[in-house]
Write a structure and sequence with these properties.
The protein is mainly alpha-helical. It folds into 2 domains: 108 residues, no CATH class; 148 residues, no CATH class. The chain is 63% helix and 0% strand. This is Phytoene synthase.
Length: 256
């Protein structure tokens, strides 16, 4: 897969991150595009087999290839790994943790508590956002701000997907609305903390910290009991997506 094909995959399957990438400086876009294309592939890997052992083998393949890249070994020609190597080089080895965090998905095991969901989101969405943010120049001293932004954005995305996750055994055990409201409250507060720390984030990193359309509002509606995540499917309209991305492009404001 060429960089152009990675771009089209991102446009089709992750339009929010695709739109955010377009607001980054041109020289940084290949790294972000290939990072997010990799994220799509490793997120899909556990679902390419209904047998947990086979699913984990597919995920392990990605872990092994990324580890080899981290040791300085170029990957064999591959749709995603080749352009990833071109952009990231040996730094791609740091991305193996993104795949490691998906092992739980292979097990098809529901989360038994909100705390488990938070840990999962931190290891997946949190690690992904930090990789993008650090590439764009966010210093280690601001890592906590990125973690808060990622937690809020990640919980909003996870709760939005809950109607699809629940039948797969990847949602919340017991399907208690109170658990969803607790998670929404945690996500909303995390976004607010990140917004308060925004001055520590370089303007050039706005593309990495974008939370997606209506993330904070969506979390607020869940926390207030206006949306039942187990039964209500709340889609992002094309207008909402365009308006949110236009705001990011015009103002550079990733916070709300």
């Amino acid at each position: 897969m060429t960089l152009e094909a990675c771009t089209e995959t991102l446009r089709e399957h992750d339009p929010d991150r695709f739109g955010a990438v377009l607001t980054a400086a041109p020289e940084n876009r290949p790294a972000l595009i290939t990072l997010y294309a990799l994220n799509l592939e490793i997120a899909r890997a556990p679902f390419q087999s209904a047998e947990p052992m086979l699913a984990e083998m597919r995920l392990q393949w990605w872990i092994d290839r990324l580890a080899e890249m981290g040791d300085g070994t170029a990957p064999p020609l591959h749709d995603v790994l080749t352009p990833l190597w071109d952009a990231w080089g040996a730094r791609a080895g740091d991305l193996a943790a993104l795949a490691e965090a998906r092992r739980r998905d292979c097990e098809r095991q529901a989360f038994s508590s909100p705390a488990q969901v938070v840990s999962y989101v931190e290891a997946t969405a949190g690690a992904l956002m930090w990789q993008a943010a650090s590439w764009l120049g966010v210093p280690e001293s601001a890592r906590g701000i990125v973690a808060d932004q990622a937690l809020g954005a990640g919980l909003a995305a996870w709760l939005r997907a809950l109607p699809q996750l629940q039948p797969l055994g990847l949602g919340l055990a017991g399907a208690q609305e109170s658990d969803a409201r607790e998670l929404a409250g945690l996500g909303r507060e995390a976004l607010r903390r990140a917004a308060r720390g925004r001055r520590a984030i370089p303007k050039s990193a706005a593309a990495a910290l974008y939370a997606g359309p209506r993330a904070c509002m969506f979390l607020t509606e869940i926390a207030d009991g206006k949306i039942n995540c187990f039964s209500d499917t709340v889609e992002i309209t094309p207008f909402q997506r365009r308006a949110s991305l236009a705001w990011l492009a015009l103002t550079g404001r990733w916070w709300r």
